[in-house]
Amino acid sequence: MGAVISVERLAKTYENGVTALRGIDFNIQAGEKVVLLGHNGSGKSTLFRCMSQFEQPTEGQVFVEGVNLPSLNKRTLRTYRKQMGIVFQHFNLIYNLSVMQNVLFGAMGRTATFVQVLAPFATSQLREEAMDCLEQVGLAHLAGRRADALSGGQKQRVAIARMLMQRPSIILADEPIASLDPKAGKEIMALLTKIASNKGMTMICILHQLDAALEFGDRIIALKQGEKVLDAPVGKIDQRQLSWLYDIDEKEEGVS
Ligand SMILES: Nc1ncnc2c1ncn2[C@@H]1O[C@H](COP(=O)(O)OP(=O)(O)OP(=O)(O)O)[C@@H](O)[C@H]1O
After folding, report:
1. Sorted alphabetically, which CDD domains does this protein's record hold (predicted)?
2. ipTM greater than 0.95
3. β-strand 219-224 against 67-68: which pairing, if any?
């Protein structure tokens, strides 16, 4: 099941004086798939880091299922963070380990310890679950292969299987297709959205590709210089509302 997320008046100014977010508000329903768009430097990653509390906001609240994450102590926060499965642009796999071992890492902190995950005799229950996650991404046949002997698309599938092993209710995907060719990118977006839909998971995905945003998102939130400038269901978006985003004369944003 997915989780309800609310962000209220979220602002972030870094120690160097750069204001990356200003007064961001939105509510995301359980199971909703939201795409976050914006130029380089518009604040998308900062928003992700504030939502997962790897970065402390300067002001504002982030509620997950009604619980305000910035108010939690570290231990309770860890429990809430486990609800968030993060998919990265560069996969973040451990390349000298097997596909299976990488997926097992998703159980760390949930049921397994570091030793259990790495042991060749990781419990059969954990291995069965990891195999099930690999089946969901179509890679069960590669469970024994080293992670460095995979294509980019296959590496991202392993990362998605590892994220599933964590049993999250929220997927935070930070440019999951930026390192892939267009065909592999489309396949990964189709897989992520299928998994999110089947399990009713809430998904927030940072993308730079407007076509993928319109094809795979339910709703688009766009940021410009740290402010929310668009928040609408995909079906109600006129692409001209986003022309500023794809104007080749626009410069990289620097917010100060
Ligand atoms: N740790 C940091 N310390 C200081 N400034 C930062 C830090 N991280 C990001 N910034 C600044 O905050 C602003 C927003 O950056 P952020 O990475 O959130 O943007 P983004 O939209 O994710 O960009 P991109 O698409 O390039 O990943 C930028 O001006 C950036 O230089």
Report:
1. ABC_PhnC_transporter
2. yes
3. unpaired
